[in-house]
Design goal:
heterodimer, A: alpha+beta, 5-stranded antiparallel beta sheet, 6 helices, B: alpha+beta, 5 strands
């Protein structure tokens, strides 16, 4: 199986540590758009070991500081699209760090969804029942199906083809 | 998203008083005024689904989708780079686990993990937080990025500019660093290149740490509405 972020890494690479790679996005939302990826190939978030998750987000924080100070960004978005419906476009977990300025034309503002108190209560109870595994080691079972889906997507995904065409 | 109330006349007068406070006093004051700090200590009721010493996760009462969670540090930090590294790592491990929990519990097929640092990035609250937004196919949420084509030379120029400062910030071994330009930049080099040169490879991580908590970050935080 081929992964553009593994195969083309050297063309995009800004820096690598023992666990993570910092890449320059070849088709940026704005100039300076960075991707932070686990060095190991992992299609979905849940497969990434906790220490690597920590390293990825710690790097995202440092990259935010760098973009404020070195690139004159007025803000940053730190964003991960986890799964196909969320818009994940590569079969390799990627954390986006996007430098922002006023009037850069990007708008991630969503409209609040109206949800009744009854529904909020129902969801709250369901979620509280599910958080027993949070804060301790959570097992990545039941996600194999999602992994397969992500692995298959490279065959026909337009975005991936674009990513292959690196300048 | 939680919408902050408009400023009243009283608050405006207060703001003038604030301009005379020391940075420490100001920080304490900001904390006392932060509705998320009051949510963390329980004085404002909320739908908390997870809490430990460092992290609170609660339901967004104005959600982008059903199950939208806010994950915030219990301590008051305005933007992500102000958080101590260990707390930040812990917070995002909890985020990963909560994302997994949402997928299992709600049967959704994906999540967007989203954080904004600074008003220009869409941050509205004064307390750093991470959104976990359950996603469905064609849900129409404006969270997907429009990507642009750039030329190969633009890409290479940006790469050359960023690689040395990224390496310096992440403090890798010298052999891991992409080759850094030596001596004076050639005449054709852009001005931005010279700015990069100002940060010498000898600059220690400690200095970078110091700078992180410094006035530049406060400026970013000040852009909050």
């Amino acid at each position: 199986m081929s992964c553009p972020l593994c195969d083309e890494k050297m063309k995009l690479l800004l820096h690598e540590t023992e666990t993570i790679s910092v890449l320059l996005h070849p088709r940026p939302a704005v100039p300076g758009h960075l991707l932070i990826t686990p060095k190991e190939h992992h299609p979905i978030l849940e497969q990434v070991p906790d220490n690597v998750i920590g390293d990825m987000f710690s790097a995202a924080s440092k990259m935010s500081a760098l973009l404020f100070e070195g690139m004159k960004a007025q803000g940053t978005n730190v964003l991960m699209q986890n799964g196909l419906p969320a818009g994940q476009t590569e079969p390799h977990v990627s954390l986006h760090v996007i430098p922002r300025t006023q009037d850069d034309g990007i708008d991630f503002t969503w409209q609040p969804k109206q949800i009744s108190d009854e529904d909020l209560n129902r969801i709250e109870n369901a979620l509280k029942g599910g958080t027993d595994s949070v804060g301790v080691a959570a097992a990545p079972e039941v996600l194999e199906e999602k992994t397969e889906e992500i692995e298959e997507m490279e065959e026909d995904n337009e975005e991936l083809k674009h990513l292959d065409r690196i300048p | 998203m939680i919408v902050m109330p408009e400023m009243t006349e009283e608050q405006k007068a207060l703001q003038e008083k604030l301009s005379k406070m020391s940075p420490e006093e100001l920080r304490e004051f900001q904390k006392s005024q932060c509705i998320f700090c009051q949510i963390v200590d329980g004085s404002i009721p909320s739908r908390v689904v997870y809490k430990d010493a460092k992290v609170v996760a609660l339901m967004d009462i104005n959600p982008a989708s059903e199950g939208h969670l806010l994950v915030l540090p219990t301590e008051h930090y305005q933007v992500m780079p102000q958080m101590p590294e260990e707390d930040l790592k812990h917070l995002f491990i909890v985020v990963k686990q909560l994302s997994q929990m949402l997928i299992k519990t709600l049967g959704v097929e994906g999540t967007t993990i989203f954080a904004a640092n600074g008003g220009a990035a869409g941050q509205r609250a004064n307390h750093f937080m991470v959104h976990i937004i359950p996603r469905a196919k064609d849900d129409g949420l404006p969270l997907n990025m429009e990507l642009k084509q750039i030329s190969g030379s633009q890409f290479e120029q940006m790469k050359k500019q960023l690689a040395p400062i990224v390496a310096q910030m992440l403090g890798g071994k010298p052999e891991d660093k992409p080759k850094e330009p030596e001596g004076k930049p050639a005449e054709k080099e852009e001005k931005t290149e010279e700015e990069v040169e100002e940060k010498t490879p000898e600059q220690t991580d400690e200095k970078v740490e110091e700078k992180k908590g410094g006035s530049d970050l406060d400026k970013i935080a000040d852009l909050l509405k």
